[in-house]
Design a protein that fits this description.
This protein has about 300 residues and is an alpha/beta fold. It has ten helices and twelve strands.
Length: about 300
């Protein structure tokens, strides 16, 4: 598989940073302007599997004789654009939606696809609970089928494994593996080439994140194509490098904290320069150090 260049990573960072609330509800006053120029693009991967990109989390798609299934659905103002692109793949009415977690850049179009297109929404139970607890989220955006550990869906001549990871980016993370084409959608358990956002206010935890990534890595092989939550298509080698980055930076910050240094002192010292390319507008080096320090 082609390894994408650093410039591509920077382009992804700029795209994500264009939204000042990538992981929070958008402001409807300026939503139209923010999303007006966003283009939803489709990339064929293997078999029935495709990836859609736009603004927000990468969307996984299974399109075939059984219809269309999607993984995540970005922001609400992009719903019609997403539907139009799905129509090019076979149907603008997905039968099923799988939410990898509850953040708005992955669940924002739930209500549109459920109310206007008849989609059934699947997610871990904690995703429904967190969305239901947000007064800005419409009832029709809530998952209608929930699970505790996971679920299998047989669709388009494929076995789709939906697996919950207990602690990671949030407390409701799922990864989705398309068995026959060997394609994995990680949700936000993978930010390809970028420091990850770990939602420590919603059950996310650095050590739990590392354990979840390690668990997923054990289940895939060198031939697996990975759709990350954010960033370009990837593979096991890059995913392993991502985990190594988290482990090394965490151990570094933890050691300094144990020496009695404050978080501001650690920020002043900074990380090794080899990690500078992982910094981006939403999670820059200082924010990443804060995340690591909080859990060290």
């Amino acid at each position: 598989m082609e390894i994408k260049s650093t410039s591509r990573y920077l382009a992804v960072a700029i795209l994500l940073a264009a939204s000042t609330c990538v992981f929070t509800p958008f402001n409807p006053v300026n939503a139209q302007d923010r999303f007006a120029d966003v283009e939803i693009k489709s990339t064929a991967i293997r078999g029935s599997v495709h990836m859609l990109t736009g603004m927000g989390g990468n969307i996984g798609v299974s399109a075939g004789n059984d219809g269309v299934l999607i993984i995540d659905d970005q922001f609400a103002p992009l719903a019609e654009k997403i539907a139009a692109q799905l129509g090019q793949l076979g149907s603008d009415k997905p039968k099923y939606i799988i939410n990898t977690h509850y953040h708005g850049d992955h669940t924002g179009s739930n209500a549109f696809f459920h109310s206007h297109k008849g989609a059934t929404i699947f997610a871990h139970e904690n995703v429904r609970l967190r969305l239901a607890d947000d007064e800005k989220v419409k009832p029709e955006a809530l998952p209608t089928v929930t699970y505790e550990d996971g679920i299998k869906i047989y669709f388009n001549d494929d076995t789709i494994h939906v697996m919950h990871l207990a602690i990671g980016h949030t407390d409701g993370d799922s990864v989705v593996w398309f068995e026959q084409p060997n394609v994995l959608h990680t949700g936000d358990l993978f930010f390809n080439g970028l420091f990850p956002y770990i939602d420590q206010g919603a059950g996310g935890n650095v050590e739990g994140y590392m354990e979840s990534v390690a668990h997923v890595l054990e289940k895939i092989d060198d031939d697996t194509v990975i759709i990350p939550g954010h960033g370009p298509l990837s593979n096991k080698q890059e995913y392993s490098a991502f985990l190594a980055m988290i482990s090394e930076t965490f151990n570094y910050v933890k050691a300094l904290k144990e020496q009695g240094k404050s978080v501001d002192e650690v920020k002043t010292l900074g990380l090794d320069k080899k990690w500078s390319d992982w910094s981006w507008s939403f999670i820059n080096e200082e924010k990443w150090i804060t995340t690591l320090y909080n859990d060290a």
